[in-house]
Description:
Blueprint: E1 2-10, H1 14-26, E2 32-37, H2 42-48, H3 54-62, E3 65-70, H4 75-85, E4 88-96, E5 109-115, E6 125-129, E7 132-135, H5 141-157, E8 163-167, H6 175-190, E9 195-198, H7 199-208, E10 215-218, H8 220-234, E11 241-246, E12 250-254, H9 271-283, H10 287-303, H11 316-326
Parallel strand pairs: 1-2, 1-3, 3-12, 5-10, 8-9, 8-10
Antiparallel strand pairs: 4-5, 4-11, 6-7, 11-12
Helix pairs in contact: 1-9, 1-11, 5-6, 7-8, 9-10, 10-11
The site of glycylglycylglycine has 9 residues, from helix 4 and strand 12.
Amino acid sequence: MTHEIAVIPGDGIGQEVTPAAVKVLEAIETVDFEFVEGEAGDAVKDETGEALPQETREIAADADATLFGAAGETAADVILPLRDVVGSFANVRPARSYPGLDAVQPDTDIVFIRENTEGVYTGIESEITEGVRTLTRVITAEASRDIAEYGFDYAKQNGYEDVTIAHKANVMRQTDGLFLETAEAVAEDRGADYDTALMDALAMHLVMTPEEYDVIVCPNLAGDMLSDLSAGLVGGLGLLPSANIGEENALFEPVHGSAPDIAGKGVANPSAMILSAAMLLEHLGYDEEGDQVRTAVESVLESGPRTPDLGGDAGTTAVTDAVIDEL
Ligand code: GGG
């Protein structure tokens, strides 16, 4: 069986790390892929006036899964609609420390389960009058239930003991009040143990004692920010993959953005993107192959070569080829 994969490199280092992940997938001899490339991002907007052309939407909608690189200035016009195209409601962001890397917190193994459709990312913003702008934060019981169910199921299926529900219901009483009460009801229906944590205090606890957390179920913005914070604990954004999961389709992307400061230099760390490809393999049912890719990345992270963000002097291609050699 051949799996059709939409490949959307996007902007900046997305153009460098996405081909690296494709090269790794091509090296997996037990799975057949057909890659269909689509354009999106700042450059295509400059050329055509549209950051996400209809053709690219269709490529992602028709594929078995999508690999997405990075979004730049047009992030809101690219990645948010793409998540919608694949019907994604859950953004899974594992933040793990790896042996041999100089991490701030070497005992980190946390999976953020981020609500992926609403919160402050619905784009409902207005200018009321000059100097006054507003943003509408949308929280629904349906989306809160979906993400909580996904989070508790994920924890059970992946052998994680602790689930924490992140919120700020003492201030955002209506919106996070609903998120919290809905997620707690899901836990109680399942008879599952859980903790709740105010997201601001949680940020501090994550820095000081990340080993106390396993799976964290978060509203949208909190999940985006707390996962980036946790990237800092394990060695940087070059290490965090993610999966945008829908009922029938999914999109895989590194947590990092387009990194314009290093784009075009050939030194971007491909690990997050290759680990996202490992998540894609698992999503398609190739657990063994996904595990092989992750193990190969871990081995290269431990023994090198490494890109400059991890203290090395190797380029994207050298690291990718080393991962393929390990495979
Ligand atoms: N590959 C991820 C990416 O391009 N991130 C840029 C960004 O702004 N992301 C916002 C989000 O993940 O919601």
